[in-house]
Amino acid sequence: MTLLKTATIKKTTLGLSLAGMMVSSLAFAAPSETPPDFVKRISDKLIVELKQNKASLNNASVINKIVAQNIEPYVDVQGFSRLVMGQYYSNQYSTAAQRGRFTKNFRDSVIKTYAKGLAQYNNEGYTLRPYRNTGAKYPVVTMDFKANNGNKIPVSFQLIDKNNQWKIRNINVSGIDMALTFRDQFKANVQQSGGNIDKAIASFKPDAEAGK
After folding, report:
1. How confident is the model at residue 39 (pLDDT cuts 50, 70, 90)?
2. CB within 8 A of 18, min separation 6: which ones?
3. Residue 104: its pLDDT value, please?
4. What is the pTM of this model?
5. Averaged pLDDT for residues 72-96
6. Residue 100 falls within a domain, yes or no?
7. What range does the record give for the signal peptide (predicted)?
């Protein structure tokens, strides 16, 4: 066998080995945190921020900053928006520009909704329910928030792995699926707008209290 053939075989073998390693690493790549550790970390950090700024939570700029720094980065806004738009997310009903506009408007509305709720924070705590890894594509972590009246409010976070980082894909509060609730609201908004997607997007205001 000539030196040229030997070198070619070695290069080919090396290339295949490297490709195999890359495929293997991608196949087993996953977030470094477990789902409950992720939810606990961001929840604890949020509570610390709320406690430190308790006297200023009625200030819109303060609470909006807390939401922007402690909630927004961990939400799959685009994925959440896709769930809420439902059938209207397809090319049959909307353009890429319209979907982008919806995502921005939805993001702004959700931030305001979170800010309004967190502004009422009064040193409530939470307990994390036992978590069992079932290998689900969208793992769910549930916690019980303690209300002022002593009741517990169950909140479930459905997660998605986005580039080896957990993100919140959907939220269920006291048995109410937020994405489904908002989807029904948006669908009704489209119908009330006579099928005008632009008008429906501009006027859509998700109401988290509607399903309660």
Report:
1. very high
2. none
3. 92
4. 0.79
5. 94
6. yes
7. 1-29
Range of the domain at 140: 32-203
Q: Could you tell me which of 138, 84, 145 has the C-alpha nearest to residue 110?
A: 84
Euclidean distance between CA atoms 79 and 180, whole angstroms: 13
In-domain check, residue 57: yes
Kindly report the CATH number assigned to the domain that includes residue 116: 3.10.450.710
Task: Flag whether 67 is in a domain.
Answer: yes
pLDDT tens readout for residues 145-203: 887 777 888 999 999 999 999 999 999 988 999 999 999 999 999 999 999 999 999 99
Angstrom distance (rounded) from CA 28 to CA 133: 16
CA separation for the pair 99, 105 (Å, rounded): 10
Segment (H or E) for 193? none
pLDDT band (50, 70, 90) for residue 26: very low
Q: Is residue 165 part of a domain?
A: yes
Query: In angstroms, rounded to a whole number, what is the distance separating the alpha carbons of residues 18 and 7?
Result: 16
User: What is the SS3 assignment for 104-115?
Assistant: HHHHHHHHHHHH
